[in-house]
Amino acid sequence: MLVLTRKKGQSIIVLDNIEISVLEIEGDTIKLGISAPKEVSIMRKELLSSVKESNQESAGQPINAQILSDDFKKLKKKY
Amino acid sequence: MEMKVQTSSFGELEVQEESVYFFSKGIPGFEHARYYVSLEVNGHEPFTYLQSTEKPDLVFIMIDPFEFFPHYEFNLTNTIMNDLKVEQEKEIIVRAIVNTRNGISEATANLIGPIILNSERRVGMQVILALGDYTTKHRLFTPDVKG
What we know:
The complex is a heterodimer. Helix content of chain A is 30%, strand content 25%. Chain A is α+β, with helices and mostly antiparallel strands. Chain B is mainly β.
């Protein structure tokens, strides 16, 4: 892992056209500004982690179709 | 061309090769599995399945999210539309993965990561909605269930 020290207002460049700047520092919170081409996907890591976790929990559930659809008939839709 | 697909839940299936969806990035958590078929089974409505053609035990239960959550909405960026080779909107099929781990009455749908399929070009991906208030767990049914 590359470790760099930056101050408020400074930035780093990734792949020539992605700029990540430190906008604000307050306590242990840092506000970052990211300028990147719109095809570059950017998201908070915990979002991707939560989707991964949810997928892993949802995959390979025992599928007993009859139970699924029988139970379904007993339930009403939420909306 | 027909091909045989081994599945843990449905036994051996014969599917049309051209009906297989290609997920170029896999699905988060299962990046190694990139080919899926979408299965509808009589009597299993409203559930459908996304079955890996490579891993017999890899299957997701899905619903049509708009059927359960009529106000569900999101924007697909041009980049995603390009990745999915979408030419017309009617090619797009939207599904949500359902988690029935705690029983069906507690079933939840992942609305922050919809599965988007292009029914024409047979490509798919799980899109993660970075904006909006959706989560990975929206209950399908009201808690006050009557038998």
